[in-house]
Amino acid sequence: DPPVPKNEVISPALAEPNGHFAQATVIETRGRLLFVSGMTARAKDGTVTGVGDITAQTHQVCQNLKAAVEAAGGTLDDIARVDVYVRNMEDFDAIHAVRRQYFTGVAPASTMVEVSKFVNKDYLIEINAIAAIQD
After folding, report:
1. How many C-beta neighbours within 10 Å does residue 49 have?
2. Are 48 and 122 in contact (CB under 8 A)?
3. What's the CA gap between 69 and 25, in Å, rounded?
4. Residue 33 above 90 pLDDT?
């Protein structure tokens, strides 16, 4: 099935996004909602990809998001919202450079916050997502 049409909501009362995300997205669907748990840089074999490398870790996280949404019958374009947790907010630009490679249509709504710890000391980023998948 094609992705559910996702439209960016733009308000003249809001500043333009300072990264690769929409201030808000709207989806009209009779499909299914998919809630994806926080994805980290864990590879399929359980090892941590890109220890110390935010770009490599963000690629792995996006690949994990892609695998989860595809297993449910959707695509990355179906993701309407992400929450991003990072160890260092200084990585903002590098993270968004990678996100642009995966979220090529309307970008999802997004929140990014810096946290002090993850469950594994080697994780630099974790992203959870909500997708609307058309039946």
Report:
1. 20
2. yes
3. 18
4. yes
The pair of three-digit structure tokens given for residue 43, joined into one six-digit string = 């590879």
Q: How many CA atoms lie within 13 A of 96 on its CB side?
A: 17
Cβ 109 vs Cβ 22: under 8 Å:
yes
Contact assessment for residue 41 and residue 124, using Cβ atoms and an 8 Å cutoff: yes
Residue 123 CB burial class (10 angstroms; 0-12, 13-18, ≥19): buried
pTM (two decimals): 0.89
Bridge partners of 110? Answer: 82
Higher-confidence residue: 134 or 61?
A: 61
Q: Which of 129, 109, 22, 115 is closest to 67 using CA atoms?
A: 129
pLDDT at 88 over 80: yes
- Compute how many other C-beta atoms are within 10 angstroms of the C-beta atom of residue 41: 26
Question: Where in the chain does DSSP place strands (E)?
Answer: 6-9, 24-27, 32-39, 79-86, 109-114, 125-133
Cα 120 to Cα 117: distance, rounded to the nearest angstrom: 8
